[in-house]
Amino acid sequence: MGQPLIYLYEQMKEEQVETIRQNAPDYIVIDATRESPQMIEDDIEIMLGWNKDLGQRLLDSETSRLKWVQSISAGVDTYDLDHFSKKGILLSNASGIHSISISEHVLGVLLAEFRGIRTSIINQAKKEWTRENISYQQLSMQKMLIVGTGHIGQQLASFAQGLGIQTYGVNTSGHVTNGFIECYSHKNMSRIVKEMDIVVNILPLTDDTYQMYNERMFLAMKPGTVFVNVGRGPSVNTNDLIHALNTGQLSFAALDVFEEEPLPYNSPLWEMENVLITPHVSGLTPSFKSKLLTIFTQNLRQFLKDGTLAKNEIALHQGY
User: Fold this and answer.
1) If you count Cβ atoms within 10 Å of the first and of the last residue's Cβ in the chain, which end, N or C, has fewer?
2) Domains in the chain: how many in total?
3) Where does the record place the D-isomer specific 2-hydroxyacid dehydrogenase NAD-binding domain (predicted)?
4) pLDDT in tens, 163-212
5) What CATH number is given to the structural domain containing 294?
6) Which residues contact 215 (CB under 8 A, 6 or more apart)?
């Protein structure tokens, strides 16, 4: 067994790699994006980013030293959490990095629809000067249900309230959270969703949230509800969503994530006038690597001190 390794699967700047080396002088830091060094895979103790093939080999190895993985995303539904739990491997995510970007995205797509901007863009492409097909509403005083009241949900609520939107939240227990008029538990969501004008999904993908937006949930909403999904695609039953849009149960949907990505060329969603499609871009964030490094180095210092993590540790049995 050799010197323990920190394996960087996510590309970092040279000065950022050097920062990691300085914080972990007893480790060999492998920058996988710049070099293909000879190494013993089982000596990898820490991974930044996730190489699926290599990661699976480490999970299957009886002699692997892997103890902690820092994910580069907020969602961790692509990880084998049961395997992590059985082997006692820590997992942390990048929660908090994307909160401003996703919040701005949600308000951007809503303003594009409510103020007729989306229709104007279409008219511009056809060189048509017309107001006849432009509908407009005010976001102010709309009731928005934010499903998921973590970092992103709280940031969105703060921004939304600045526009006069009334913000309500849904979380696991219904506990009160800053920025919300009132919060409800998941089990009570279908009872209160009928009072909302806008429903925004920000939930991670778990067994409990898989296809939670189905025919039953859409029918529980009041006719004409606006739906935004910046959480996970498989939380939505696509066929039921299309039916709700066709019948007017939903008046508009802004979708950034989908059950299948890329969205298939033959999906009816592409041609629906009451749908705005973005290609999973809501979380794109300036200076992402610097913000990720801040989380990683905080966790690294704590891990080297006592084997625990300072922030964003995933509760493996919950999936978030």
Assistant:
1) N
2) 2
3) 108-282
4) 999 999 999 999 999 999 999 999 999 999 999 999 999 999 999 999 99
5) 3.40.50.720
6) 237, 240, 243, 244
- Does residue 227 lie in a domain region? yes
Q: Looking at the structure, tell me whether residues 168 and 30 fall in a common domain.
A: no
Is residue 313 domain-resident?
A: no
Spatial CB neighbours of 246, under 8 Å, sequence gap ≥ 6: none
User: Is the entire prediction scored with pTM above 0.90?
Assistant: yes
Q: How far apart, in whole angstroms, are the C-alpha atoms of residue 83 and residue 78?
A: 12
- Of 283, 230, 285, 282, whose CA–CA distance to 258 is shortest? 230
Check: CB of residue 101 under 8 Å from CB of residue 283.
Answer: yes
Which residues sit opposite 144 in a β-bridge? 167, 198
Q: Which domain holds residue 10?
A: 5-96+287-306
- Alpha carbons within 13 angstroms on the beta-carbon side of residue 173 total 3
In a domain, 106, yes or no: yes
In whole angstroms, give the CA distance from residue 51 to residue 11.
12
Q: Are residues 79 and 228 in the same domain?
A: no
Cβ distance 121 to 108 under 8 Å?
no
Contact 248, 223 (CB under 8 A): yes
Q: Strand pairing partners for 142?
A: none
**β partners of residue 229:** 201, 255
Kindly state whether residues 203 and 74 are assigned to the same domain.
Answer: no
